[in-house]
Design goal:
The longest helix is centred in the first third of the chain and has 4 residues, at 14-17. Helices cover 1% and strands 47% of the residues. The protein has 737 residues and is mainly β.
C-alpha cells in the first residue's frame, strides 16, 4: 500500500516517513535492536479510553498493518498493536533506532528493523502477535549480503541477495541457528531492484523489478508462488517504479501505480485474460491502494476513499478520507479515516459478490482526542475564472464544539483576507466559499497565498490547533489588468498631470460596472501627448503602457502586477509622425499584443509585438491608406468572434465602424456599428470588463461614461451598461487609457 501522509503542523511528519510502507525506506541508517528490546512495552499496555465493544484506534494514528487478531497503527502514541478482542494494546518499541522502519505484512506478524542510508532494510525482527509469549525471530540479512523485500510469515521473508555480483530473489527462513535460503526461479535472468508493497495472499505475493538492457531498462511484475519458489506469472511495465510505486493484487487482478500526464494512475491487468486498464486517481503523489477482488480501492487525506470496479467501471465512495489502507489476509483490507456514517475510526473492507466492498467499523477513535485539524480541503491551485469566481476551502476538525479562524495572506503584497468559520450543521468539516476578495472588498491579486487556519474550542479550554497551507490563485489574463487580479484597470490623467488608476471589479454589481478602488500612480504625466494601454508586451501576463512624448520618443512602462509600473524604457524616436496609437490586441493570432498607428497622411501601420519589453515591436508593415477620416482608433480585441483582434474606428461625423481582424494584421471591410459616438471624448478597449470571456469597450465623455458590452457578433455589436466610473467627472481627465 502507498503511504498516506497526514499533513499536520502540530504533528511530526516522521510518522509517515518512517512507516516505509511503499518502499521499505526510512530517513537514514540504524542498527537492529536486540530481539527483546524491539517489542518491549516500555510503559505498559495502552489503556482503552472507552468501555464499548470496539477497540480504540489511538488518536492521531493511522493503520499500517493488520491481521486476523489485531492491527498495527502509528501516530502520536507511537507504533501500537491493538487486538480486536478488547485486550490491552501493546506499544512496539523500535529499539532506539534513530531511523527505524517497519513493514505491513497483512497478517498478525509485526516486522521492525534497521534501514541503512541505502533505504534497504538489512535486518528484521519478527513477532507473531497471536502468541506474544513466543520468542522473537531475528534475521540478519546483512550477513547474507541481502536486504528485505517482503515478510512472508512469522519466520520467513523474501529478500534480494547478491551472488557472484548477480542479484537474486530468495526465500529466507530463520528456523534455527542459521537461516536457510531458497532461490526464486523463472524470473528474467537480469531482474534486480526487487520491491513490493503487496502482502501474501493465498501463499503468493506480487513483486516488482527492473529488467532489460542497461541503456533501456524497463520494469516487470511477477506473481511468486512461495511453496514452489517459482514466478508463475509475469507482466511488463514501462518502468520499474522502485522506491516510488505501489503494487497490489487479488485472485482476479494485479495492479500498480504509475505517473501519466501529470496524474497518478493505476495500471491493472486481469490475470485470466491479460486485459489492461488504466484508472486515473489524481494529481497527488501519495495514495493508499488495495485490490479487493475485482474492486480497486484508493484514497488519501485530501481525497475520498474510492472503489472502482475493474469489471464494469462503477465507482463508489467508501470513505470521506483515508489516512491508511492495508490488506488484511487474502481478501479484505483495513482502512483508517473517516466515513459519513461512521465518523472517524478504523474500518474493514470485505468483498461482496457483484457489489462494492462492504464497510464495517472495527475500531473507534479515542473520544478524548484533543482538538486537531485532521484534513485540509484546499486546492494547490485554482483558476477563479474557470471556477465561477469562487472556491470552497475546508478543514476537517477532530471535534465539532469549535470554531475556525482562517487567514489568506498574499506572499508578495501582504494583502489579507480573514474569516471565522463556525461549526457545520452536520459532520466535522468547517468550510466556507471564498469569492476571491480581500478584507477591503477589492479583488485579490493572483499569485501564491499562505493560508493559516487556527481552530479553538468554544469553551476556551485547551490549546488551539494550527494548520498551514498554500494555494496559487490565477485568472484568465486581461490585457487591461495592471493589478494582476483579472479585472480591468482604467488609467486617467487629470489636468495637473497626475495619473490615476481605477480597479473595476470583473463583474457588474446590481447591474452596474463599478470601480472598486481608485489609486494615485503619480504626477508628471503631462509630458506625454498620448498614453496607451497596450496589453502584455513583456510576456508576463501583466498589462503594460506606452507613452509618446512631445519630441516624438515612444517610451514603455512595464506593469509590475500590483498597480505600479517599472522605470520607463525608451522604445525609439521618430514616433511623432503618428497622430493616433492603439494597442492591447492580438491582431495576428500569435498570442502577443500588437500596435497600430496612423500617420499624418492617413496611412495605417501595423507593429507586430515581439514579447521583448526592451524591443517590443517589429519593423512596421503598411496596412493601407484612407484612415485619416477617423479621429478615434481602438484595438478592442476579438469582439466579433472571428479570427483575431478587431478594430473600431470613429469618423468625424460620430459614426463608429467595426473592422474585423483577419488574423494576419489586416482587416475585413468595415461594418457600421452606429452613430452618435461623437459625444465621447475618448474610447478605450478595456479588456473583459464583465468576465464573460469577451473584451468590452468603455466610452468616456462629459455626458457620462458607459461600458459597452461586446455581444460576440457583427450585428448588434454592443449592449450599453451603466457604470459609476467617472460619475460627475466627464470633464476632469485629459486622457483615459
Amino acid at each position: 500500500m502507498g503511504v498516506s501522509l497526514q499533513f499536520r503542523t502540530t504533528r511530526p511528519r516522521l510518522a509517515a516517513a518512517v512507516t516505509a510502507v511503499l518502499t521499505v525506506t526510512a530517513l537514514g541508517a540504524g542498527t537492529l535492536a536486540t530481539a527483546p528490546a524491539a517489542f518491549a512495552a516500555t510503559s505498559g499496555p495502552v489503556e482503552a479510553a472507552q468501555a464499548e465493544a470496539l477497540p480504540v484506534l489511538p488518536a492521531g494514528s493511522s493503520v499500517t498493518s493488520g491481521g486476523s487478531t489485531g492491527f498495527l497503527s502509528y501516530g502520536d502514541s507511537g507504533l501500537i498493536w491493538t487486538p480486536f478482542d478488547g485486550g490491552p494494546a501493546t506499544p512496539v518499541d523500535l529499539g532506539g533506532y534513530e531511523y527505524p522502519g517497519w513493514m505491513p505484512t497483512g497478517s498478525d506478524v509485526v516486522a521492525v528493523g534497521s534501514i541503512p542510508g541505502s533505504g534497504r532494510m538489512t535486518a528484521v525482527t519478527l513477532r507473531d502477535m497471536r502468541d506474544q509469549a513466543a520468542p522473537l525471530v531475528e534475521i540478519d540479512l546483512a550477513a547474507l549480503d541481502a536486504h528485505l523485500v517482503a515478510v512472508l510469515g512469522p519466520k520467513t521473508v523474501l529478500a534480494e541477495t547478491t551472488k557472484d555480483g548477480v542479484p537474486e530473489l530468495h526465500v529466507v527462513t530463520q528456523d534455527g541457528a542459521a537461516p536457510t535460503t531458497r532461490k526464486i526461479t523463472d524470473l528474467p535472468a537480469d531482474a534486480d531492484r526487487f520491491y513490493t508493497s503487496a502482502t501474501v495472499q493465498s501463499g503468493r505475493i506480487l513483486v516488482g523489478y527492473e529488467t532489460g538492457p542497461v541503456e533501456a531498462r524497463t520494469g516487470g511484475r511477477a506473481v511468486i508462488d512461495i511453496a514452489t519458489g517459482r514466478a508463475i506469472e509475469t507482466y511488463a511495465s514501462a518502468e520499474s517504479g522502485y522506491m516510488s510505486q505501489s503494487l497490489a493484487f487479488s485472485r482476479s487482478h494485479v495492479a500498480w501505480t504509475e505517473w501519466q500526464n501529470g496524474s497518478r494512475v493505476v495500471t491493472s491487468v486481469e490475470r485470466s485474460t491479460g486485459v489492461r486498464k488504466t484508472t486515473v486517481m489524481g494529481p497527488d503523489d501519495e495514495y493508499s491502494l488495495a485490490l479487493i477482488g475485482d474492486w480497486l480501492v484508493y484514497g488519501n487525506d485530501w481525497r475520498p476513499g474510492r472503489a472502482v470496479s475493474l469489471t464494469d467501471g462503477r465507482t463508489v465512495d467508501l470513505a470521506d478520507s483515508v489516512t491508511g489502507l492495508v490488506m488484511q489476509g487474502s481478501s479484505s483490507a483495513l482502512l483508517s479515516g473517516r466515513t459519513a456514517e461512521g465518523g472517524a475510526g478504523l474500518f474493514r473492507l470485505d468483498p461482496r459478490t457483484d457489489d462494492a466492498p462492504a464497510v464495517t467499523k472495527v475500531a473507534e477513535v479515542d473520544p478524548s482526542e484533543p482538538l486537531d485539524i485532521q484534513q485540509v480541503h484546499v486546492p494547490y491551485s485554482v483558476n477563479l475564472d474557470s471556477a465561477g469566481g469562487k472556491v470552497t476551502l475546508g478543514w476537517d476538525l477532530s471535534r465539532r464544539d469549535a470554531y475556525l479562524d482562517v487567514t489568506l495572506h498574499h506572499t508578495v503584497t501582504e494583502e489579507t483576507f480573514h474569516t471565522r468559520v463556525q461549526a457545520p450543521e452536520a459532520g466535522n468539516r468547517f468550510s466556507f466559499v471564498w469569492d476571491g476578495t480581500l478584507d477591503d472588498g477589492t479583488d485579490a491579486p493572483n499569485g501564491r497565498y499562505a493560508i493559516e487556519a487556527e481552530a479553538s474550542l468554544l469553551d476556551g479550554t485547551g490549546e488551539p490547533a494550527y494548520q498551514g497551507w498554500e494555494m496559487y490563485v490565477s485568472r484568465t489574463a486581461n490585457p487591461h489588468d495592471f493589478t494582476y487580479n483579472g479585472s480591468t484597470d482604467l488609467l486617467a490623467r487629470d489636468a495637473g498631470g497626475v495619473l490615476w488608476r481605477d480597479d473595476l471589479r470583473d463583474r457588474p454589481v446590481d447591474g452596474q460596472v463599478k470601480s472598486a478602488k481608485r489609486t494615485r500612480i503619480g504626477g508628471g504625466w503631462n509630458t506625454y501627448k498620448q498614453i496607451e494601454a497596450v496589453g502584455d508586451i513583456g510576456g508576463n501576463e501583466i498589462g503594460d503602457l506606452v507613452a509618446l512624448d512631445g519630441s516624438g520618443v515612444l517610451w514603455s512602462y512595464a506593469g509590475e502586477g500590483y498597480g505600479t509600473f517599472g522605470t520607463r524604457v525608451k522604445v525609439g524616436g521618430g514616433w511623432g509622425v503618428y497622430n493616433k496609437l492603439t494597442g492591447g490586441s492580438d491582431l495576428d493570432g500569435d498570442g502577443r499584443s500588437d500596435l497600430l498607428a496612423t500617420d499624418g497622411s492617413g496611412v495605417l501601420w501595423f507593429y507586430k509585438g515581439t514579447g521583448d519589453l526592451a524591443k517590443p515591436f517589429a519593423t512596421r508593415v503598411r496596412v493601407g491608406g484612407g484612415w485619416g477620416v477617423y479621429n478615434q482608433l481602438v484595438a478592442v480585441g476579438n469582439i466579433a468572434g472571428t479570427a483575431a483582434g478587431d478594430l473600431v474606428a470613429r469618423d468625424t461625423s460620430g459614426v463608429l465602424w467595426l473592422y474585423q481582424g483577419t488574423g494576419k494584421g489586416t482587416f475585413l471591410a468595415r461594418t457600421k456599428i452606429g452613430g452618435g459616438w461623437g459625444a465621447f471624448s475618448q474610447l478605450v478597449g478595456a479588456g473583459d470588463v464583465d468576465n464573460d470571456g469577451r473584451p468590452d469597450l468603455i466610452a468616456y465623455g462629459t455626458g457620462g461614461t458607459y461600458v459597452y458590452h461586446a455581444n460576440g457578433t457583427v450585428s448588434g455589436t454592443f449592449t450599453r451598461l451603466n457604470t459609476t466610473l467617472y460619475a460627475g467627472e466627464g470633464g476632469k481627465f485629459t486622457s483615459v487609457a
